[in-house]
């Protein structure tokens, strides 16, 4: 335990130093200094680590919250920079590889699609999908539309009108995917009746960065999404929680959803992925997920085979109980 504590202390000390250096930068727009510091940060945070960032002291928590805000700002500036560069091409979609992390989006979207196909009852063939927090480079929507969901309409939502303008220009020369992409400037809190039209809603990692804000967003989605619709929430695990907010699956349950699967990748896909489904019985789902009843625990979260090599995956208590029930019937 002492060795583990020392490892966590050393990690937090290293990340605190990087946070201080990043906070002193005059700008977070792409530059050699900015790129070098964030490369160092990702290199430190991505490997498996025993750290549980939710249990760190107040000083470390304050540092982490500030670091996530800096990461969010830098990510926005990086995406805006490359969106502008791509828009200068006659067909921007032919040049997506110039973005240094494009392959990460390919892998993340593949993972999300395979999780949906595997864990949503009846499979997945959505007519309409919403992506909340799409930004100026809507790579996730594009990869899903082009590689996995060729008949699906995508509605991309972002708070920033300029980001949507940049994003829409990337699809001007594509008659297939471009015809299935639309962009809307809106706060998710202002969406209501629109949400009932979607078979799947994706929630980007940086929408609602504070835990209480994320929980409010999820509860709003739970109040307005159609029964049976799927929700894909991007989260983080271990030291990756210094880069992105961590979402508690119980907050998803309390928001009116049944958590179907949780996946923590162990490769260059930084985000964890949580797959959930809008529950038809919100009260019963709250009871299952921790309000006044048996909370999810590791004994009810079995490790199951991933659809591809993407680290640890767990299914929720309901699926485990169904497996036990099926086994009993078989005997």
From TrEMBL:
Q: Tell me which domain of life the UniProt entry assigns to the organism this sequence originates from.
A: Eukaryota
- Keywords of this protein's UniProt record, alphabetized? S-adenosyl-L-methionine, Transferase
- The EC number on file is 2.5.1.43
Q: From the UniProt record, list the reaction(s) this protein catalyses.
A: 3 S-adenosyl-L-methionine = nicotianamine + 3 S-methyl-5'-thioadenosine + 3 H(+)
Gene Ontology biological process terms in this record: nicotianamine biosynthetic process
Looking up InterPro entries in the UniProt record yields:
Nicotian_synth, SAM-dependent_MTases_sf
What terms describe the molecular function in GO for this protein? nicotianamine synthase activity
Q: Which PROSITE patterns match?
A: NAS
Q: What is this protein called?
A: Nicotianamine synthase
């Amino acid at each position: 335990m002492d060795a583990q504590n020392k490892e966590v202390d050393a990690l937090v000390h290293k990340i605190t130093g990087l946070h201080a250096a990043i906070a002193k930068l005059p700008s977070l727009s792409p530059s050699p200094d900015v790129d070098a510091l964030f490369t160092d940060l990702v290199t430190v945070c991505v490997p498996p680590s025993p750290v549980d960032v939710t249990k760190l002291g107040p000083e470390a928590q304050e540092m982490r919250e500030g670091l996530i805000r800096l990461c969010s700002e830098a990510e926005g500036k990086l995406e805006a920079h490359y969106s502008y560069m791509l828009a200068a091409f006659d067909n921007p979609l032919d040049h997506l590889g110039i973005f240094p992390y494009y392959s990460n989006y390919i892998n993340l979207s593949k993972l999300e699609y395979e999780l949906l196909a595997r864990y949503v009852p009846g499979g997945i063939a959505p007519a309409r999908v919403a992506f909340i927090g799409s930004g100026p480079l809507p790579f996730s929507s594009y990869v899903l539309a082009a590689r996995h969901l060729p008949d699906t309409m995508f509605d991309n939502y972002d708070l920033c009108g300029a980001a949507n303008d940049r994003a829409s220009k990337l699809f001007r020369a594509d008659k297939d995917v471009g015809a299935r992409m639309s962009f809307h400037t809106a706060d998710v809190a202002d969406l209501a009746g629109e949400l009932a039209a979607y078979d799947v809603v994706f929630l980007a990692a940086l929408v609602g960065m504070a835990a209480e804000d994320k929980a409010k967003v999820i509860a709003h989605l739970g109040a307005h999404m159609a029964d049976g619709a799927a929700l894909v929430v991007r989260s983080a695990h271990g030291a990756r929680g210094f880069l992105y907010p961590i979402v508690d699956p119980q907050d998803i349950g309390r928001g009116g959803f049944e958590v179907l699967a949780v996946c923590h990748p162990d490769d260059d896909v930084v985000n964890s992925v949580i797959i959930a489904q809008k529950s038809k019985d919100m009260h019963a789902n709250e009871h299952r997920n921790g309000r006044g009843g048996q909370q999810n625990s590791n004994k009810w979260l079995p490790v199951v085979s991933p659809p591809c090599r993407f680290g640890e995956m767990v299914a929720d208590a309901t699926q485990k109980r169904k497996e036990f029930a099926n086994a009993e019937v078989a005997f």
